[in-house]
Design goal:
This protein is mostly helical. The chain has six helices and three strands. A three-stranded antiparallel β-sheet has the order 1-3-2. A hairpin with a 7-residue loop joins strand 2 and strand 3. It is elongated, with a radius of gyration of 18 Å.
């Protein structure tokens, strides 16, 4: 491998991180009714903005057009989002969160924040900034 132990440890940490992410995705896929990480990524756009086109949500979630349509069909059926057609271009769908969708995403974000805070509580701000620089 390498003669730099710190680089070897970083490599191991990145592998562990990506393995944990794959495990999380698998767990969400098995959980009945849970929002998947892809759905959360797409819908987080709507936390920051009142409304966004479906194509932007697809980009954020890394999905193709047919996959985002199916995802939005389900989210709309679950009462989490609403769609409206663009007045000028009927091919464009604008998506917004319902009150229920905003509440569910808010609860998920609060849970995630608690888990994140607990997981990194013992790290100094200096270490957190260093980790951020590495990840970026």
């Amino acid at each position: 491998m390498t003669e730099r132990p710190a680089l070897t440890r970083l490599h191991e940490a990145v592998y562990e991180f990506t393995a944990a992410e794959r495990h999380l995705v698998a767990r969400y896929k098995r959980a009945d009714g849970a929002l998947s990480p892809g759905r959360v990524a797409a819908l987080n756009v709507l936390i920051r903005e009142t409304e966004a086109p479906a194509s932007r949500l697809a980009r954020e979630a890394g999905l193709k057009a047919n996959s985002i349509t199916a995802m939005l069909d389900q989210l709309e059926a679950d009462g989490l989002v609403r769609r409206r057609r663009d007045d000028d271009d009927r091919r464009v769908s604008w998506i917004s969160l319902t009150d229920a969708g905003r509440a569910e995403l808010g609860a998920l974000q609060a849970d995630w924040d608690r888990c994140f805070d607990d997981a990194f509580a013992d790290l100094s701000d200096r270490d957190l900034r260093a980790a951020s620089r590495v990840i970026e």
